[in-house]
Amino acid sequence: MQKRIIKEISDFIFIEDELSEADIIFLPGGAHAEVPEKGAEVFSLGYAPIVMPAGKYGIKAGAFAGVQSKKDIYTGSYVTECDFYKDVLIKNGVPEEAIICEERSTFTKMNAVNSRKLTDKMGLDIKRAIICCKSFHARRCLMYYSYAYPDTEFMIAPIDVQGISKDTWHLKPLATKRVMSELRKAGGQLTDEVDEFLGHRERK
């Protein structure tokens, strides 16, 4: 793969922002402990007063598939991704009262949409937010949450998981496959949303 293409894909998929004060920290669902650990770290630095983990379980699995990293540390009987993330957050110093769980969603877009429904129900005005997510998942997370919160300014605080990083993804076949899958999804699954953002949706 040409160096230019690798760089352009890397710059598009992998996002990392300088953090500043925000209203909330969003954690899109999953089964790797590194994501909520990153959320706890960001919380401990005082960037936001609330953490919202999201996720029931993967839509294809039909049940929580189990902890995928650091199983020796996080040993609970978790029913949902949000249960797991909440336990990780608490074990890493986040007070339970600072955690708001969204436990209905089964894929990333619904993480964002259901989080919006929940913050609206609670009367929370989210002007600025931080998303803690897997580094290779950053672009889609930003697109989905921006769709759900069009008036919110977002910052991405990524964490490398599964040995996939911006600098090395193209060197490992499984990592390359995962990143290219994210690239396809970013272009395909969000077509309607992007058209709506840009005002290109056809009038019927």
Low-confidence stretches: none
Taking all Cα atoms into account, the compactness measure Rg is 17 Å
Give the N-to-C terminal Cα separation.
Answer: 42 Å
Extended strand count: 4
| Category by helix and strand content | alpha/beta
- What coarse outline follows from CA principal-axis ratios? globular
Roughly what is the average pLDDT, rounded to an integer? 92
Main beta sheet:
4 strands, parallel
Q: Report the order of strands and helices.
A: HEHEHHEHEHH
| Helicity range | 40-55%
Largest sheet, order of strands side by side? 2-1-3-4
Oligomeric state: single chain
- Compute the number of helices: 7
Strand content: 5-15%
Tell me what you see in this structure.
This protein has about 200 residues and is of the alpha/beta class. About 40% of the residues lie in helices and about 10% in strands. The chain has helices at about 5-15, 35-45, 80-90, 110-120, 140-150, 175-190, 190-200, and strands spanning about 25, 50-55, 130-135, 155-160. α5 (about 140-150) links the parallel β3 and β4. It is globular. The termini are far apart.
